[in-house]
Amino acid sequence: MNRIVEFELDAILPSQEDVLLDQGIPDAASASDRIQALLTNALDSFARTVHPVGMISELDAEEFEPVFRGEGENAGDVLLERIYPRADNLALFALTMGEEVSRCIEELFAENEFAPGSILDSIASLAADSASEVFETDFFEELSGRGLVSADHFVLGYSPGYCGWHITGQKKLFEFLEPGKIGITLGESCLMTPLKSITGLLVSGKSEIHMFEPGFEYCRSCKHRSCQERLKRLSAHKPSTA
Amino acid sequence: MSLLEEISTLLQNGDDERVSELTRKAIDEELEPKEILDNGLIAGMNIIGEKFRNHEIFLPEVLLAARAMYAGMDLLKPLFLKEGMPSIGKVVLGTVQGDLHDIGKNLVGIMLKGAGFEIIDLGKDVPPEEFVNAAEREGAEIIGMSTLLTTTTPMMTKVIELLKERGLEGRIKTIVGGAPVTEDLAREIGASSYGYDAASAVERVKELVG
Questions:
Q1: What ipTM is given for this predicted complex?
Q2: Do B176 and B92 contact (CB within 8 A), yes or no?
Q3: What is the pTM of this model?
Q4: Is A24–B59 a contact, with Cβ atoms under 8 angstroms apart?
């Protein structure tokens, strides 16, 4: 499996509730009519300016090992190092929301249109996250079609820069995957352009290989805590006994 | 309701057109520009800041109010040409070298400006020397640094070390913030303060200049 994918807008467009939550508004009912109107306009702007595309390429654990080692700057005990050797299938991925939407956000801020700019930024970030979930699902289905997963399998993505996998891992990932083909470039500090881009490793394996206690040293200073949501998804994943 | 109270209320409602209109009216009625700024625009933004801290309003409402404030300030700026726009402090702000994420930094700048600070926004991917040079050149009391990446937090340390090297540590204080930055990290690298979010950054900067 080695392909470029153009994402359907409907598959990545975040819900209004999620965008509002990202803006610090806990329930949609608390949003004024004016905020609702800003949100509607921002969703329209996003639809006009987003060019969501991604690429995915399968590899084995041996091929992934140098990508994981990167520049040798990983933390001492990295979550992913405990997971990927136990995986049944692996794939590297890169995806982007494109340059135009990032430019649009910058222009809005430059014109003092702070609220629309901030809302559009939330939409683009959430859409990028959704696109990586689309890849998780697609990879699972692809493997399923080839008879390589069972009901107790789960696919999750892991990205450089998180959970002890140092962001300099991006360099080797870019060498392997070549995301320049879909317009993503890597800067000196391993930052991607366009900004709303995500890279990572998709890991397919039995649910239990993804489970962990967030007690690593780097967990103490982590403010993301998105792992909690992922662990919840894993716990809710009840394999069929059929 | 006085004209300035009306400006403050309209600003809180994020009505930039009416704020602009009434600021023009206040200028035409020969109210002191500093009075319009302090008792109209900044007074309104202070209430907005407090409501935001108390979770009575949300980020988009703060940003709409900020836009209205900027609309009023645009009219006042030319009247302060000689002595410059009055401020309660000068802050050099930027996203550190190697990082292009500037949404958080922009929000902090908008809210600091709303609280009456003068902002020298250096933008993103700012080298350590540029932070220090700009603060020296502009006579700023504070350097505010933001980053979203774990790899670029050492750039914050470099700025703080550079201030020490040039003997500016006592005069120019630093505040750091961004996704990978914590209170502990700020303390560890020797920053004067830490902003968890834009609202807390404003409070901390006020304490630093207080």
A1: 0.86
A2: no
A3: 0.89
A4: yes
